[in-house]
Amino acid sequence: MSLNPQTEQLLRQMEQEQVPDISEMDVPRARKFLEEAFGEAGAEEVARVHSLTVPGPAGRLPVRIYDPGGDGRRPLLVFYHGGGWVIGNIESHDPVCRALARASGYAVASVEYRLAPESAFPAAPEDCYAATRWLAGNAREMGYDASRLVVAGDSAGGNLAAVVALMARRQGGPEISRQVLIYPAVDLGGRYPSHEENGEGYFLTTAAMEWFVTHYIQDEAAAKSWMASPLLAEDHSGLPPAVVLTAGFDPLRDEGRAYARKLREAGVKVEEIRHDDQIHGFVSMLGLLDDARSAIEELAERIR
Questions:
Q1: Which residues are catalytic?
Q2: I want to staple 260 with a disulfide (CB 3.0 to 4.6 A). Which of 3, 108, 244, 291 is the partner?
Q3: Residue 210 belongs to a domain with what CATH number?
Q4: Number of folded domains in the chain?
Q5: What whole-number distance in Å separates Cα of residue 167 and Cα of residue 55?
Q6: Where does 6-164 show beta strands of DSSP type E?
Q7: How many C-beta neighbours within 10 Å does residue 140 have?
Q8: Which domain holds residue 12?
Q9: DSSP string covering 164-192, please?
Q10: What is the DSSP string of 67-112?
């Protein structure tokens, strides 16, 4: 399949503007780049937005809840942002969370976990699990329903959603009804054909992937841990049903599809959404790509 024409035009524009690769930036510049690129594009109004902090392993963690409104208690979706465990925050993924809340009818709780290199692995998954457990345990007091709890994330956030699902099974809760993995990174030391096929020219590069992992993981043994690479977990049985979205021109395409196969082989129900003509990160490009909106609607339908 050929690249989506709208996406191709966007990539051409980025090339003309000589936007540098993430791997060529220092950490502060890379963080600013992502927030400026995605933080305001296509933001929608929701009935209520409120912020709080929740207990984490090393201090309080910021959380922003997007409430779509409606009658009764809204079910709860906990969202972990992408950005290679190094960049990204609540602001960079504010439009995506707003869109997911409106489309799904779920209250979306966006977690701001500690980032590498200041807080390297396993800080991010430990924070995400702690926040999820607290939100599930306190949902009723906040007016939400955790009986249909969903965990979701994009890219590194998809990795964290998969890891939180594994942690919840291992540690006896909270009960998760579905995991939504948007072009997830699931094997940090692995090599896949899509890494080579899509390693340059499609927004996320293999050089950027190495930059992220180098900042996040301190040694090879850690990269092989299931908490870093959920594909490598010994047992995937008993995990929540999964929705796995992949993009055809994404270096992470084959990892995501391998994880879908691994879950399915373990008896987990899996629904795959394949955007074969799209690139990594396209779901965050609301206001820039029409496919971002359609992908949000597809995800929301499966979440509902």
A1: 155, 250, 280
A2: 244
A3: 3.40.50.1820
A4: 1
A5: 17
A6: 48-56, 59-67, 74-80, 107-111, 144-154
A7: 13
A8: 5-303
A9: HHHHHHHHT----SEEEEES----TT---
A10: E---SSPEEEEEEE--STTTS--TTTTHHHHHHHHHHH-PEEEEE-
Q: What is the pLDDT of residues 219-236, one digit of tens each?
A: 889 999 999 999 999 999
SS3 196: helix
The one-letter amino acid code at 108 reads: V
Neighbours of 201 (CB within 10 A): 11
> What are the tokens at 63?
């959380």
pLDDT digits (tens, 9 = 90+) for 173-215: 999 999 999 999 999 999 999 999 999 999 999 999 999 999 9
Q: Which two tokens stand for residue 151?
A: 């965990």
Place of tokens 């790509």: 289
**Tokens (6 digits) for 252:** 């992470």
Q: How far is CA 87 from the centre of its chain?
A: 12
